[in-house]
Amino acid sequence: MTIADGIWHQIFSFDHYGELLTLVRNSLVAGAALGLVGGLAGVFVIMRDLPFAVHGISELSFAGASAALLLGTNIVAGSITGSLLAAGVIGILGTRARDRNSVIGIIMPFGLGLGVLFLALYKGRAANKFGLLTGQIVAVDTPQMAWLLSTSVVVVIALAVIWRPLAFASADPDVAEARGVPVRGLSIAFMLVLGLAVALSVQVVGALLVLSLVTTPAAAAARVTASPVLLPALSVLFAIASIEGGILLALGSSIPISPYVTTISFTIYVVCRLTGRYGTRGRGARRRSVAQPA
Amino acid sequence: MSAPGTVSVPRARHDEGANDAAVISLRGAALSYGDRSVWSGLELDVYPGDFVAVLGPNGAGKTSLVRALLGRQPLSAGTLTVLGRSPRETGREIGYIPQQAAVSAHAMLRARDLVRFGIDGQRFGPRPRTAAARRQVDEILESVGASSYADVPLSLLSGGERQRVRIAQALATDPQLLLCDEPLLSLDLHHQRAVTRLVDARRRSHGTAVVFVTHEINPVLGLVDRLLYLADGGHRVGTPEQVLTSESLSTLYGTQIDVVRTPGRIVVVGAPDGPATPAHHTHATRATDGVRP
């Protein structure tokens, strides 16, 4: 067997696939929930230009999760705590984009440092440590599953309630404010919702790669549609496809789940970018013919 | 509509109900940021169907006035009522056209979505997409001549097209007051006319009061009933004929200002610290407000 064959076998190996599949049924259910949450939250991450905030929150989420690992408490709860703290700070201190980026740039390395500290003190399995940063197929156990699903439900309900005014405030803040939309309150509310969504995604792809679930699918969808219905629908579809595809592929290998998820999600984006009509200057020139009504 | 004399006669009192039908009523209104007084002693009544232009150099408080009218900037003295109430309670009855480039560049939003926000964007909770609402959006877009690009993302529209959509959004709630903040900025003459014509048509057909903030008077010269001219040294309220004279502006600025009138156009020459004039002006001397080559 050549080395290449060996590597290939590490990446893709589908022996005993059926038996493995039943083991990850929980993961697949959790994955669908995370795809839904990440895809929906991603729409506003793109609209409000928050990818950097997502990254910052995920580092704090990692710190929270590693603290929980060290203390032997619930990792999902730890991850959510870290996320919400970061999201709250960013939401309150970073109302304007310029301030926000500095706030994120300041808390992100701090969070990462804390996380590294907690992991250094942790004496348990090394795979657990690595998983928090780069993801793992968590054989999601029942209490974790309950946390994941109930948090997903909270996020989806919260987004359903604030969706319309949040979209208004994100796209057209001046008029929204004039119309009485609580622009600042919604901004903070969304950061907290985003914090929950990020904490959930950390469980699957790890803190470093959350953007592939919370930003890439929505960015891909925005390339092919501007419809307020299709955009979130496609974003969710892309996110679920990435995560479930990633779980199913990672199942047969010894490699963490994240490269599969990120590669699928990136591929979808590239395809959308190449085929999409929107978001590039080129189309502006094409439609100039209708631009000048008398 | 406007009383020809104008510095509007204060009505009995500014209490509830005593405003007749004044859409906007400013009484001794003043605004200052810390020690710096932006404007003070402002007395202005705007009635249904009035077209009031707000002019002045940058920094004279035009945008602050807009914010005050929208209830986003409390006065430091005096009173302001909009539709007989505190301006903070009148959000939906004011059609607001903000300065350009206010739409987030990251939002993939179609023209029709922006108009839809104007109808019910402030409502929380899930909202069914009904055919009736869609038809309403179509009708509004049709009325401003924007139907052909209803489904095009805003980022792909020209400035003039976007401004039509903005007007449609502002008119979506059938407002009694249309508040336009520099709606002609960076539009060419053709689109300037289109925008002013739409606004003017609306106030004539629906009696909508119009407050039109601009640094160029000429595009709206034939339409304006009254002017509020804000400058660092004070302000003037009156008809264009009263306010835009060499004498009146010289007093206002405290320096010699020449107002040159040609048929259908007014050129103000010599105003210090005037607004940045569009690059394509033909002028030998420093010419500001009201210049339109």
From TrEMBL, chain A:
Membrane topology: Multi-pass membrane protein
Signal peptide: none
Gene3D superfamilies the record matches: ABC transporter involved in vitamin B12 uptake, BtuC
Keyword Glycoprotein: no
Pfam families per the UniProt record, alphabetical: ABC-3
Segments passing through the bilayer: 28-47, 68-92, 104-124, 145-166, 186-214, 226-251, 257-276
Primary localisation category: membrane
Keywords: Cell membrane, Ion transport, Membrane, Transmembrane, Transmembrane helix, Transport, Zinc, Zinc transport
Subcellular location: Cell membrane
Keyword Methyltransferase in annotation: no
Family: Belongs to the ABC-3 integral membrane protein family.
Its job: Involved in the high-affinity zinc uptake transport system.
Protein name as it appears in the record: High-affinity zinc uptake system membrane protein ZnuB
Species of the source: Streptomyces lannensis
